[in-house]
Amino acid sequence: MAPRNPTGFDMAEFKAAASPKSAWAKRDPWARNEIWRYTGPFTRWNRFKGLFPGFGVASVAFAGYCAYEHFFLKDDHHHGEGHH
Predict the structure, then answer these.
(1) Which pLDDT score, from 0 to 100, does residue 30 have?
(2) Which Gene Ontology BP annotations are present (predicted)?
(3) Distance from C-alpha of 55 to C-alpha of 52, rounded to nearest angstrom
(4) Which of 30, 68, 80, 83 is deepest in the core (most CB within 10 A)?
(5) Rounded CA gap, 43 and 35, in Å?
(6) Which phi and psi (to 5°) does residue 54 adopt?
(7) Residue 26 lies inside a defined structural domain of this protein
(8) What is the residue-wise DSSP string for the chain?
(9) Distance between CA atoms of residues 17 and 27, nearest Å
(10) Distance CA 13, CA 5 (A)
(11) How far apart are alpha carbons 21 and 23 in whole angstroms?
């Protein structure tokens, strides 16, 4: 038989109580009040999507400007050809 912990703390019982599937969690009176934080518009993905607002639009606009500058704006100064 394993020696009993003198403090009376039982790790197996603690793990069972801390599990989200435990009987205690099912009897939690606040559980239904807390569940809204993790469903619908408050899911982890929906919270992450709003982290960088406008980043997608700005990326497309910057890529478009870079393409425009490369193909349509030419440098007519000809630096480095010498001036006679």
Answers:
(1) 74
(2) electron transport chain; mitochondrial respiratory chain complex I assembly
(3) 6
(4) 68
(5) 10
(6) 85, 0
(7) no
(8) -PPPPTT---HHHHHHHHSTTSHHHHT-TTHHHHGGGGSGGGSHHHHHHTTSTTHHHHHHHHHHHHHHHHHH----S-TTS---
(9) 11
(10) 13
(11) 7
Name the residue type at position 13: E
> What does the alpha-carbon distance between residue 48 and residue 55 come to, in Å, rounded to a whole number?
13
In-domain check, residue 14: no
Q: What is the pLDDT of residues 33-75, one digit of tens each?
A: 777 777 777 788 887 888 888 999 999 999 999 999 999 987 7
Quote the domain boundaries for residue 36: 31-72
In a domain, 82, yes or no: no
- The single residue listed with the structure tokens 């912990």 is 5
